[in-house]
């Protein structure tokens, strides 16, 4: 099982950075957050539906000589394999190479897509690959700041995603099957705040205030999850926390993608974000401790603290972006090596 989990992690590791990079190359900066929200909505709907499916599959315990959890692996694994084969033809190429995609854009539509991105940030065509060209982007402190926010976010993401049924069972007293069942609705609910906050973020070109608001909602949700004694209030807290962290995934992705230019810098940022995102997952898997049931104070305080740090990082970056834009207007200074580029905050 350990070997299989390692292999699963290896094969999964490129999916989200790849999709994030691909989406960021297709849309203007004032369109990104809603597109990331659509991607995240797809994930949470599948995650929630998977919880309901697991509830049903767990009732097959003992059928065909397999335990309930083994049925979950078999059924969902086969579904993933089938979708993976279809995706080979379904997924599209970058805008400049869209003509190679399977029944996608014609030449006129491809040129329109390229023109839109070129007018927005002038980075459609990647510069020729060279190690100095790639490695120089690691000198930009923004890359590490963006990566740090995803580390902090994924601490909470992992803790809630994997341990919500455990929290419901050990912390709130529900049975195993009811815990699996009740872990699904918060993810369906999360579709609402992620779409609303992303629409507002794109419409008004707001990134930092949306992230701060979502972080405050998560802090409130985790406070409700731990401190009250009433089960209903604590369960409502899981809705608030889940909706907030999922909304922030789209918001943070658009925040970083809107403030960098160049294909190789996007690749470097995606790699750094993925690495720290994974480290956040490792950290998050240790903060929900069964001996701390029903309050799980370590998970609560770490989650709240992580989002206080996210607020601090985003506030510092937004202040820097504001000052840089102001200086560019006064001194004719070029930002991100791109003429007429302005940071979005």
Detail the poorly predicted runs: none
**Treating each run of at least 4 consecutive H or I residues as one helix, how many helices?**
13
Cα gyration radius (Å): 21 Å
Share of helix among residues?
Answer: over 70%
Overall residue-averaged pLDDT value = 88
Number of strands: 0
The largest pleated sheet is described as: none
SSE pattern? HHHHHHHHHHHHH
The portion of residues forming beta strands comes to: under 5%
Classify the secondary structure makeup into a structural class: mainly alpha
- Report the principal-axis shape: globular
Q: For the terminal residues, how far apart are their CA atoms?
A: 44 Å
How is this structure best described in words?
The structure is a single chain. With 345 residues, this protein is an all-alpha fold. Helices cover 73% and strands 0% of the residues. The protein has helices at 2-12, 15-26, 32-57, 68-90, 107-121, 131-135, 141-171, 176-182, 185-203, 208-226, 231-257, 263-284, 297-331. Helix 3 runs antiparallel to helix 9 (185-203), helix 7 (141-171) runs antiparallel to helix 13 and helix 9 packs parallel to helix 11. The chain is globular. The model has no long low-confidence stretch (mean pLDDT 88).
């Amino acid at each position: 099982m350990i070997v299989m989990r390692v292999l699963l992690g290896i094969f999964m590791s490129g999916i989200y950075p790849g999709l994030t990079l691909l989406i960021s190359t297709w849309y203007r900066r004032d369109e990104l957050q809603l597109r990331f929200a659509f991607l995240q909505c797809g994930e949470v709907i599948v995650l929630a539906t998977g919880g309901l499916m697991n509830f049903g599959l767990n009732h097959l315990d003992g059928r065909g000589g397999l335990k309930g959890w083994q049925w979950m692996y078999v059924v969902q694994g086969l579904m993933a394999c089938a979708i993976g084969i279809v995706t080979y033809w379904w997924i599209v190429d970058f805008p400049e190479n869209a003509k190679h995609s399977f029944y996608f854009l014609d030449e006129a539509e491809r040129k329109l897509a390229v023109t839109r991105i070129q007018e927005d940030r002038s980075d459609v065509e990647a510069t020729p690959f060279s190690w100095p060209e790639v490695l120089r982007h690691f000198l930009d402190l923004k890359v590490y700041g963006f990566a740090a926010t995803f580390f902090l976010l994924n601490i909470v993401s992992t803790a809630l995603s994997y341990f919500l049924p455990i929290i419901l069972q050990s912390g709130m007293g529900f049975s195993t099957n009811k815990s699996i069942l009740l872990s699904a609705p918060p993810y369906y609910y999360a579709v609402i705040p992620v779409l609303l906050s992303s629409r507002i973020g794109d419409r008004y070109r707001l990134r930092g205030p949306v992230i701060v608001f979502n972080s405050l909602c998560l802090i409130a949700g985790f406070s409700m999850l731990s401190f009250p004694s009433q089960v209903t209030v604590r369960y409502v807290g899981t809705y608030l926390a889940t909706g907030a962290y999922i909304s922030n995934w789209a918001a943070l992705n658009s925040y970083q993608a809107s403030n960098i230019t160049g294909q190789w810098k996007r690749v470097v940022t995606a790699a750094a974000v993925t690495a720290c995102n994974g480290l956040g997952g490792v950290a998050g898997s240790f903060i929900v401790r069964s001996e701390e049931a029903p309050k799980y104070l370590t998970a609560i305080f770490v989650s709240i603290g992580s989002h206080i740090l996210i607020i601090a990082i985003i506030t510092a970056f937004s202040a820097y972006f504001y000052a840089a834009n102001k200086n560019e207007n006064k001194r004719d200074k070029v930002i991100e090596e791109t003429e007429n580029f302005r940071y979005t905050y």
